[in-house]
Amino acid sequence: MTLRLPPGAVVSEKELSLRLDIGRTPIREALQRLARERLVTILPRRGIVVSEVNVKSQLRLLEVRRELERLISRSAARRASTAERKRFRRIAHDFQRSAQANDDVAFMRTDREFNSLQSAAMRNEFAAGAMALMHGLSRRFWYIHYKQAADMPLTAKLHADIASAIADRDEARAAVATDRLLDVIEKFTRDSLNTDV
To answer: 191 with 149: CB under 8 angstroms?
Structure first.
């Protein structure tokens, strides 16, 4: 996600085991998961290649993500418990703070917590599983391009709008706020074509 292993890099289990100072079995298991999430490609007897980042693929991913995110936001607004709604309110506040401070690290931390809470609150393991795959790919794309093309404060505010709508149990507002966020993410993706990485 954070490009310590850049797209196109070739690595091996042995190299990663030495680099991370852990056994090869957990490395192998992690690589299998990353392969399922399309973050690496395993080439038998040749190594592991960190997947390239492709704008056209990202735009296709966003087509699916838009529909799924809308479902997740509406479902979370409908099904979240009282305790989860309180957490959504706090998360909305944290997003607003990260926007005001233009703090990308705080934003990413809050975004991860938000995604996890949304997945739990929606009470649909199938949508949550599909979204987990897309979040990893989207997060990596964002990390590569956000300094050149993203408006992080705006993105944080739009996330805060979704969290607030869910906290207020307002399904329609959650869906509209999700569409607004995905519009900005799609524009960011298209704008990244014009940046040098």
So the answer is: yes
pLDDT band at 154 (very low <50, low <70, confident <90, very high): very high
If DSSP codes are grouped into helix, strand and coil, which group holds residue 10?
A: strand
What is the token pair recorded at 75?
A: 């479902």
Please compute, for residue 117, the number of CA atoms within 13 A of its CA located in the half-sphere on the CB side. 25
CATH number, domain at 110? 1.20.120.530
Q: Are 136 and 181 in a shared domain?
A: yes
Average pLDDT for 11-34: 92
Residue 114's domain comprises 55-194
Same domain, 172 and 93: yes
180/195 Cα distance (integer angstroms): 23
Instruction: Check if the beta carbon of residue 157 is closer than 8 Å to that of residue 181.
Output: no
Q: Say which residue, 123 or 142, is predicted with more confidence.
A: 123
User: Exposure string (b/e) for 55-82, b if CB count within 10 Å is 16 or more?
Assistant: eeebeebbeebbebbbbbbbbbbeebee
At residue 168, the pLDDT reads 98
Q: pTM for the whole thing?
A: 0.82
Angle at which helix 152-167 crosses helix 55-79, to 10 degrees, equals 30
